[in-house]
Amino acid sequence: MSSQSKSGNVTLTTLQQLKMRGEKFACLTAYDACFARILSEAGVEVLLVGDSLGMVLQGHDSTLPVTMDDMIYHMACVKRGNRGSLLMADLPFMSYASESQTLENAAALMRAGAHIVKLEGGAWIENTTRLLAERGIPVCAHMGLTPQSVNRIGGFHVQGRDTDQAQLIIEEAQLLQDAGANILLLECVPSELARTITESLDIPVIGIGAGPETSGQIMVLHDVLGVSPITPKFVKNFLAEAGDIPGAVKAYVQAVKEKRFPAREHCFS
Ligand code: KIV
């Protein structure tokens, strides 16, 4: 691992320090022990057990069918393979609809090995974020394109393109930081908006399809390896050049750290 604390593990403090030093960090999704070990040993700071597993592992056309049982199973697999990365787990669709449900489900993910839970939303997750933070559960707030709301949004579209929507995202990001979020994840927003938010917040901001200026980058593992059926604009296949999987993951980590990925062609303006 390249960015470990003295204990040998990546922690929230590690990410905070990297942001303060202006150094980028790399994140990838992971769903099983074997890949978790490869990613972790290649220096990926954060492994996300994402509800994207509903699409890339289970073959659904959205993340909505993913259950808590699915998440707990894959979280436990990833924990066994992990070699010191920070482990983040998604709270899946409708698993944080009430206070008691949120606490029970977040606790189940933490017991399975998560160090931080991720939930999607803007102002409406402010109280949930505060509830979790007050009880010692770190939170990553996922904003911009929030796939669990795909039916409300009307598709997987770039968010924050008009001034009013961009302003709302800026204000809600601040609200969630103030409520106790430890990380913000921005998906599919214009690079300029992601830069403004990253500069205005104290917490690290992770981007996917959000340009090169966020503190860290995240990709779905299957996209990095070029095996996803669809390839959005922000995706790069690192396996094609590297030739093998550990090489592809190392190339991704290096490209993020050297600010070569994402390049202009992967960004929205
Ligand atoms: O579920 C997931 O994999 C995600 C990433 C797309 C950030 O939320």
Please state roughly what percent of the residues sit in beta strands, choosing from under 5%, 5-15%, 15-25%, 25-35%, 35-45% or over 45%. Answer: 5-15%
Reading the helices and strands in chain order gives HEHEHHEHEHEHHEHEEHHH
What's the end-to-end separation, in Å? 33 Å
Low-confidence stretches: none
Overall mean pLDDT: 96
| Rg, alpha carbons | 17 Å
Describe the structure.
The protein has 269 residues and is α/β, with parallel strands linked by helices. The chain has helices at 12-21, 33-41, 53-56, 68-81, 99-112, 126-134, 150-153, 163-178, 191-200, 221-224, 239-242, 245-257, and strands spanning 25-29, 46-49, 86-90, 116-120, 139-144, 183-187, 205-208, 216-219. The protein has an eight-stranded parallel β-barrel, surrounded by eight helices. Helix 8 packs parallel to helix 9. The mean pLDDT is 96. The structure holds 3-methyl-2-oxobutanoic acid. 3-methyl-2-oxobutanoic acid binds at residues 29, 48, 50-52, 90, 142, 185, 187, 208, 218, 220.
Which structural traits does this protein have?
single chain, 269 residues, alpha/beta, globular, binds 3-methyl-2-oxobutanoic acid
